[in-house]
Amino acid sequence: MNRVHIKTYGCQMNERDSEAVAAMLRARGYRIVADEDECDVLLLNTCSVRDAAEQKAIGKAGYSLSRKKRNPDFVLGILGCMAQNRGAGLLDRLPDVDLIVGTQKFHRVPDYLDNLRAARESGIPLGEAIVDTAEEEGSQNTIRDHMDDGEGRVCAFVSIQQGCNMDCAFCIVPTTRGDERSRPMDDIVRECEELAARGTREITLLGQIVTSYGRRDYPHTGGVSPFVQLLDRVNAVPGLERIRFTSPHPRGFRQDLADAFARLPSLGEHVHLPVQSGSDRILRAMKRPYTRARYLEIVQSLRAAQPAMAFSTDVIVGFPGETDEDFEETRALCQAVNYDMAYIFKYSVRTGTPAASMPGQVPDEVREERNRVLLEVLREGSLRRSQALVGTVQEVLVEGPDKTGQRFMGRTRGNRTTVFESAPRLVGTLVPVEITRASVSTLYGDLVLARDGLQSPEPAASL
Q: Who's near 372: CB < 8 A, 6+ residues apart?
């Protein structure tokens, strides 16, 4: 009972949590397998941002439990946000689940699996499922292990902060992730140094509200926030070529952060800046502590610091009470900002949030139409931004083979996925790529061979 498969739903935070669990299990002697059909233990790391995400995970769990009829020793565990949100109540729907572990208890998973394995090997009946969703002080410091599979990956996530103290009317994250908790700055820098020494060239700093990092733990020094102080230190790590971060909040963007994009060479010129709505009235209803005008000021300050800045965002359409006029303000803002990419969500009722009981719930067909209109606006904008790069030379960090395995891919400093002919020896290096064509989300190009002494890559057939 030592072959484990982890299936992850949701955001990069969940991906990073799964990575840490996998590393801890591997250190304990478990094998992490890529094929869930070959596993003895299936762990579902779940998401609760939308009800549909929970239902998808519940459906997967129900289907997977059918394996117990063929193999009574098969173990199914549910981890993460849905486990935290529903706790032991999941057993009403899934009575045969063996393990339910919340967001502050990921580091306990190896111990719990050891207990389950020992019980099975001893022939001891398991009885009730193990359920642990309690809060634990210092749990944010346990998400530090990475998969130890030899040479480091080109790109890695580093968790710096967990939890959220905001009270957005639509969001369940404060319930599933708890209050804000930040890791010590020295520990984060040490983790980045270790990753760089193993070959990592790009690090993405992660947090529920990453820009809130350390605001209760470290002083502002000379008008510089703890988060920007951390960026300064990570920028100085030898071997690191790029830094990114997600997910921030507009509240965290002050001039010190805008200035960081102008002066820190490793900080890629891409910002994910969630707007949610372009209407001040809806922003107030959402309990988002900024206005449309303030949001546009932030965009302007970032583009002043870094003219090539690329923006992505999150938008909710059909929030309770949203009128045609409110939606038009959102559409107009999206056109004004000219986003490179956006995640558009049709508002869906999330039990346990203030918005769930608000009056003026928008009909499904209206939400669907607004979603369609905004997707088209953003598709056109993204394509326009991509095509503007055709003919330019972009610095690309080579990450590895593309999905076809025939060419290679990497991302520009502005976070655009780029596909081109390359060679395995260039993985992990920065290369100049001349962009020859573009789609909505992907650039295609050719290596500029004369620059930096690069030679012609080996033919794709030799990969």
A: none
